[in-house]
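Team,

Forwarding the record for the chain on the shared tracking sheet. I've put the sequence and predicted structure together so nobody has to dig through attachments.
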Amino acid sequence: MEAWMEARMEAPLATGPSQRLISFYGDDFTGSTDAMEALTFGGVKTVLFLEPPSPELLETRFADVQAFGVAGVSRSMTPEEMEAELVPVFEALRAANAPIVHYKLCSTFDSSPAIGSIGKAIELGRSVFGDRPVPLLVGAPALKRYTVFGNHFATVGEETHRLDRHPTMSRHPVTPMEEADLRLHLGRQTDLSIALINLLDLSGDESAVRERLRLRMETNPGVLLYDALDDERLERVGSLLWEEAEKGARFVVGSSGVEYALTAHWRRQGIVRPVAPEFGKPDRAKQIIAVSGSCSPVTESQIRYALRNGFVGIPVDADRFCSPQEAESYRRVLLERSLHALEEGASPLLYTALGPDGLDTESLKRSMASAGRESLDTGRMIGEQLGKLVREAVLATDICRFMAAGGDTSGYVARELGIYGLECLGPIAPGGPLCATRSSDPRFDGKEIALKGGQVGKEDYFVRVRDGR
């Protein structure tokens, strides 16, 4: 959706804590920046934190923001870890008193009963916010993600795939999508009942749509899934979410489709209003540092393009990260290669895989077992090590811009850098903006970072980040 790149900004009608519209928690870092981007370019001044901000921080340095988020990594957690992580965050977001609190998940619904369980997140949300039906909106037409009669689809290139036939998600190494019907997939993660508001329910007269919603609500479902195919129906969902929030249904689950839906409704209602875009074109960076833990064919094409256009590829053997002792020495080797590439005038690009067959997951699991580590921790292990490497490279050089590819990788890279927040600098691709870092450490404050999920961006994404396009 190229028109997205030319979308007009919106200015808030009022500012200050009492005018906050939404807060959110992202289940991975790239998903969190995706939500921040959708709000920012939809007209809502937004900041993203790595930990729940204190009331003092919100009321002083960020008093004028209308929305804030917390970037998490629950997508890579077990249900037990999720409970320890999410309950305190949800309570903090509830205390901040925004009308809507959004648990933001990936638009490809990455989850399983054992890892990143969306069902578990919904149950925890109900324990904090009350047992009203939880709205679930996964489709995001701006990102070419669609839900049709409960079944979810995603576009790769020019072809749209049902998610259980998607070339990446059907073969995901940790959370493969074996079922496209979101009700069935989610039903494996929770005993809550799941109702559907489908495309036909969202069509026609607005009063008829509200009556259909009322009838669904009378059955008191645990979860209410909304279809999403186009911007018109998405805006209608946004109006329903806002009306339900005004009745007390504060907790919402879904992709950045939630932000796209709400900002469309807020514009129509005059809660935010159009103004000219304020973002200038970022300067071209002579060099950047890039790391990737993604197995996506989309990222594979981006890596191959980058290697033909000024980047030096440094393959990473993830098996060597399994042992803590070897990981340290191996990371030093990778750092030396990265610094050498920078000295030669190139941009180092470190990657663990080239496409879905590029990472030997069985070998990695065996190596982790030999090191006494849980095999489901692969994303965390790779992300933490690549994050340490980026931190060491930044401290050793004057590099000011860097990027990470892969949802899990990006989250752990950001945490290793010791930054507490991000703000959008400008668009690179839908779902993967260039951001400014916020840190109490001056060595990492004001740096520029781009974080993207495996499916985000066109072939030249890495080059766009370097060149500020």
